[in-house]
Each structure stands twice: as structure tokens, then as C-alpha cells.
């Protein structure tokens, strides 16, 4: 690790979010930190890219930019337009709330890290497993440790990690576990209301999620006060189904 290393920092909670600003203040002595984050909250935007309107970039000082788009937009614009070099690491977070199990599909935080990985850059998504954590300082301490380890390794191949940190004091964090994605028990609800003009509208909300107990999962690690690191991959092919489908004799012919 050297002073020349550069982190591209982003999130989905917006450029004014406490988790993001905790990293800005706490990582500057490790390396250069360039911030390119959404102007407003973009939670649950997943890997969406803005195609229906122009994007605008606002400068908030040296190495700090707000984007009128999604977390994925931010990473694309940073790498392809704002920076004239490729950063050493894309760091997305610290997210306000957990990103475990199937939630990584919806998460804007994880999507930003995925975009970095697709661009060939080592990328990490970091979340605190509570919507309103009492403090981001323990998560900062863990993130500093992880960032230093990654930069010290100087890997030629890029990594993609999803990190969830228990919302407890630093002295109560028991360590780090390498985990797999857990499986969520969905309790999502649709709330139907009527507006003053008599028209129905809906809130997609959710009850508190439950989780299937699995000793190797991210949820189990965090619930036992361990930091969860789940390495992710973009390989989504179901190879077993390829083998099964070949038995279907799918030979379409025009009628």
C-alpha cells in the first residue's frame, strides 16, 4: 500500500449520508479518496442505469462529486469520465442497513460494487446491519482494516466482496467470518391507501425480514456479532439446468 493508491467511494444513501462521510473522514490517511455519489438517496435501485434523461455532475470541492443518478451511474461516470485513471478500489458504503442474502439483488450499494467489478476494479460493498446504527465508528474501523488488507495484497485479479458489520461496539465484534449469502424469509407487504381525490395508491413495504438459520451464512455471522465477508461472482449460469435442458430435445422448427 502506498500514498498513490486511490479509492473511488460511492453509496446509495446519497452524498450527504453519515455512513459515506464517516469513510471520507476516516480513510484519507490511507490513500486518496475520490467521492462520486448520488445527489439523493437511491436505495433499492439495484443495478439500474439512467437512460431516459441526461445526468448532471455537481462538484462539492476537490475529489468530491454528486451525480443526479443511481449508484451504478456514479461508478460509470467516475471511471469513464471524471477520472483519467482507474482507481485501485471501488468502495460502496457504509450503507445504512443490512445487505444480506437475496437483498444483494435489490441493493444499490452492492450494485455499485458490482459495476466496479465489471469494469475490472476490485470492489467492496460495506453495510451496517441496522437501519439506524448508534455509531458508524466500529464499521469505519473494520472497513479501514479490510481496505488496508486489499491494498497490501496488490492482487492482479479483481475481487467483489459484500461486507456486513454487526451494529455493536468495536469491543463486542468477535472477528471476521467468510460466509455465503443467506436465505431470507420474505414478509413483504403491500399497503393500499386512498388519496384525497379518491384514487388508490400503494406502498411497497415490508415486515421485518426473517432468515433461515444456516451456520455458514452472512445472517448467522452478523447475528453472532461477527463481521461477514461474502465473496460474490457475476456468473449466474445454472450449469445443472444446462445438462437437464439438453434432455428436452428442444429443436424448434417453423410451422
- CATH uppermost class: Alpha Beta
In round numbers, the mean pLDDT is: 91
Q: Count the domains.
A: 1
Largest sheet strand order? 3-4-2-1-5-6-7-13-8
Please compute the radius of gyration using only Cα atoms. Answer: 20 Å
Query: What overall form do the CA principal axes indicate?
Result: globular
Structure, described:
The model has no long low-confidence stretch (mean pLDDT 91). It is globular, with a radius of gyration of 20 Å. It starts with 5 loop residues before the first strand and ends in a 10-residue tail after the last helix. It has a single domain (6-182, 213-248), classed as Stationary-phase Survival Protein Sure Homolog, Chain: A, CATH 3.40.1210. It has 255 residues and is α/β, with parallel strands linked by helices. Helix 1 crosses helix 4 (137-153). Helices cover 25% and strands 26% of the residues. It has a nine-stranded mixed beta sheet, with helices on both faces. It has a two-stranded antiparallel sheet with strand order 9-12.
